[in-house]
Amino acid sequence: MKVLILTHRIPFPQNGGYPIVVCNTIKGLLDLGHEVSLFALNAKQHAHYQEDDGYESKALISRINYKTYPINIGISMYEAALNLFNSQAQYVDRFFNHGFEKMLIEELKIHQYDIIQFEGLFVAPYLNAASKHSKAKLIYRSHNVEHQVWQRLAVQKGDPFKKWYLKLMASRIKKYELHQLNRFDAIAVFTDQDKKTMLECDIKQQVNVLPVGLDMARYHPDYSRTEFPSLFFLGSLDWMPNREGIQWFLNTFYHDLTTGDLNVRFYVAGNDIPEQFDDYDVMGKIYIQGEVDDALEFVNSKSIMIVPLLSSGGMRVKIVEGMAMQKCIISTSLGAEGINYTHGENIMIANTREEFYNCISKCIKDEEFCKQIGANARKLVEDTHDVKVVTNKLVAFYQQVLNH
């Protein structure tokens, strides 16, 4: 089977959920003997999106047909203001580039593919070119129900203008998203919740649930190198749900962590942390670290993972990775959406200040409890998120679509 994957960013290095999912999909397909091509947009204004030259990336790239194209997705203040009077979904349209479309068309004229997989809404603007120049089945993989993310963000805002703006964006994105999804041959989602949302939105196409797959050989927890107790957050803060969630957590627990009864260090790491977050930094209490060189080593070095998501959708790959690293995780139910968890057994679920406080207080006092939660979490991931199992399901899904 020949598969072409389209992405809105370079998935190297694997420093976030999106690239981890894409790279594991590629590895899984290659290991089963399928041919894979990857065409990636390269948004150069994001430094951490740049292709790395590590051995792991080079080894994977050498096994595929790989092309990238530089684009500018920046929006000026003037363009943003004009967008208020434009009914188009500029948030998505900025990823359209004629040069990339031309490169894609030339590829499709030369090579025939069985499957073209669109990784998320930001590459949907190239659907017209793919459908016109290829007989391949067109698969959409939803990393989030994008309009739902914006709707949930709007609910959280108290400022009337911000709430209005987010609702406006959600409405425009929803209109575009639902129109595009009904043009694909089939859709893959990570969670039952996202499938339910799509069906409620009157999506006509086949929607299959395929969970996040991890290469379990990459995850080697080592408690001898773990600081206990310690809390940590790891995620990119250029994604609004992450920024909103961690800001809520810092504002809510700042005094508990710095002068109160929660006697534990809290580490915040990830890409694109705004400068104003430095104001939260308190020596010996709260550490705003920014981007880390080795995400898995950072995760291994800390004991309790905090995921305070208040708005989002899809499956949080960082939680699945944290489980693979045998971390004790405290998350909102929304953050853990789509994971077949059991509260108090393989994760701790907290949705209010009081619930978070109680979970943190319990975990930082009981190392053996944390280790047991982490061991159970690892078992859950091994059973349901191993990339070999997930890729076999993906190929069966492809075959079903091809035979339809």
State the domain count.
Answer: 2
User: Assembly type of the shown chains?
Assistant: single chain
Radius of gyration: 21 Å
CATH architectural arrangement of the largest domain: 3-Layer(aba) Sandwich
Instruction: Give me the CATH fold name of the largest domain.
Output: Rossmann fold
Give me the CATH superfamily of the largest domain: Glycogen Phosphorylase B
Count of helix runs: 15
Distance between the termini: 16 Å
Description of the structure:
- The structure is a single chain.
- With 404 residues, this protein is α/β, with parallel strands linked by helices.
- It has two domains: 2-213 and 386-403, Rossmann fold (3-Layer(aba) Sandwich); 217-384, Glycogen Phosphorylase B (Rossmann fold), CATH 3.40.50.2000.
- 44% of the residues lie in helices and 16% in strands.
- The chain is built from 15 helices and 13 strands.
- Residues 16-218 form the Glycosyltransferase subfamily 4-like N-terminal domain.
